[in-house]
């Protein structure tokens, strides 16, 4: 009975987070972007990916404004970004992953310098000239994160302390979705407890089951939501600082009801 109640509570969370306020990620937005001259500024970002941040998408990462960051739910989201200077910029742009919170009211995104340069035309010197602009007009929209055949992973944070405290973050989450709730249980058990989002991409619990651990992820994609069950993720001897294969990948694409801007979708 307790598991059923928890399931319906989590579904309520899905509908809460799938409201129209968050339903236009795929729409094309027009704004400005700047860049960090040092990638280390993003690797110490609010999502708490740490030094591994610069390894995502070959260092094409970004800090995003609060409505994209979504109190950490937007960490790991991918966006296609292109600048609108036809002299310096290509029509393709580049894909970036959100790893930090942008608190500036001048730009929606602050890109790593590598991502900023990648928006330039593939001609000698265009990327340097683009950097000299500092801030540029852009258009951007959310796109699925594509990690190929790589499964989603669960990283156990160094702050985790057996037997009573577990902190994790999800890595390599595919698709165009957000994880809005996580449940945990011993493998083979029906007694589930929940993790809370601590900060950025980090989830924590002080009610850690013993033995091998399984997870349920409540995932939203626009107006759609579902539960993804990973039946065995952490072994009984899990260790802080290690990363474990979740055995599943999320590939859902957002199905959204944003009629006012559907005709602006970037193709």
From TrEMBL:
Residues 44-150 form the Expansin-like EG45 domain. It is found in: Secreted. Residues 164-246 form the Expansin-like CBD domain. SMART domains: DPBB_1. The keyword Secreted applies. Keywords: Secreted, Signal. Residues 1-23 form the signal peptide. Transmembrane segments: none annotated. Belongs to the expansin family. This is Expansin-like A2. It comes from Camelina sativa. The gene is LOC104720754.
């Amino acid at each position: 009975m307790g598991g059923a109640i928890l399931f319906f509570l989590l579904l309520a969370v899905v509908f809460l987070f799938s409201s129209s306020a968050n339903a236009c990620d795929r729409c094309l937005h027009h704004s400005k972007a700047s860049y960090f001259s040092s990638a280390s500024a993003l690797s110490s970002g609010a999502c708490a990916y740490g030094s591994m941040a610069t390894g995502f998408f070959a260092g094409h990462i970004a800090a995003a404004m609060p409505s994209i960051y979504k109190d950490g739910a937007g960490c790991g989201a991918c966006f296609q970004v292109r600048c609108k200077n036809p002299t310096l910029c290509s029509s393709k742009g580049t894909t970036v992953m959100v790893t930090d919170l942008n608190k500036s009211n001048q730009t929606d995104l602050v890109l790593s310098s590598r991502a900023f340069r990648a928006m330039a035309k593939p001609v000698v010197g265009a990327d340097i000239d683009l950097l000299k602009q500092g801030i540029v007009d852009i258009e951007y929209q959310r796109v699925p994160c594509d990690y190929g055949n790589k499964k989603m992973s669960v990283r156990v944070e160094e702050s985790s302390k057996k037997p009573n405290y577990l902190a994790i973050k999800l890595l390599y989450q595919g698709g165009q979705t957000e994880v809005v709730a996580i449940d945990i249980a011993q493998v083979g058990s029906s007694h589930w407890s929940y993790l809370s989002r601590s900060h950025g991409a980090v989830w924590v619990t002080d009610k850690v089951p013993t033995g091998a651990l399984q997870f349920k992820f409540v995932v939203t994609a626009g107006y759609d939501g579902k539960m993804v069950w990973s039946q065995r993720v952490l072994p009984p001897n899990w260790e802080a600082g290690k990363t474990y294969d979740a055995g599943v990948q999320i590939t859902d694409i957002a199905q959204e009801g944003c009629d006012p801007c559907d005709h602006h979708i970037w193709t």
